Amino acid sequence: MEIILVPGFWLDASSWSEVTPPLVDAGHRVRPLTLPGLESVDAPRAGIGLRDHIDAVAAAVDSAEGPVVLVGHSGGGAIIHGVLDARPDRVARAIYVDSGPLGEGGVINDELPVDGDDIPLPAWDVFEDADLVDLDDELREMFRNRAIPQPKGVAFDKQRLNDERRYEVPATIIACEFPSGMLREWMAAGSPFTAELARMKDVDFVDLPTGHWPQFTRPAELGEAILAAVERTADATAG
């Protein structure tokens, strides 16, 4: 199975490096992506928006030989959901890592502090305590040293969706900050935060309690959780 890994804000393909070993060892083809504007701190980011990132991932899907599994962390969850809408017949499963599907008209986060065309990694006190669970001082320093400013347009642009076949694609939610039981309660209550998720017809939930960056705080466990979801997908495809 081909697995395409889409990083969250401020991160490039290398952010998945400690997550991929169990996927590679199991014989899967793994493709972590670096999205436009995230190539380096000095890369141009003017004019790069959400659709550019969706199109970049869709191009990776188009280059694959068969169905793919998409994995999106944080803001990458909104991106892979846009790809589900664009390529519903090419995606075997979508895996949302501490994220979820972003519905029509939603934005990833238009409250982050902006510097021109960039959104630099904010000070830690901008984040909620739940975001930072297990992200100790050493990991925070590592993250800040590798962080690349996010293109403003990706965070601020509205999601545009057209194909309801996206709801038929099997999905897995790897719940970190909020337990899956809480997500289910929000879905049952009709929360706008989970409205798009509630419309997905085949969703598995996996709890991986930690903060918002499990690829740094619990990378081995994240790799195993992704692998389990991929193998369920491969079994279903084979069947």
From TrEMBL:
Which GO molecular function entries does the Swiss-Prot or TrEMBL record give? catalytic activity
The record's Pfam families line, in alphabetical order, gives: Abhydrolase_6
Give the InterPro entries listed for this entry: AB_hydrolase_1, AB_hydrolase_fold, Sec-Metab_Biosynth_Hydrolase
> Which PANTHER family does this UniProt record tie to the protein?
AB HYDROLASE-1 DOMAIN-CONTAINING PROTEIN-RELATED, ESTERASE_LIPASE_THIOESTERASE DOMAIN-CONTAINING PROTEIN
Name listed for the protein in its UniProt record: Pimeloyl-ACP methyl ester carboxylesterase
Source species of the chain: Arthrobacter cupressi
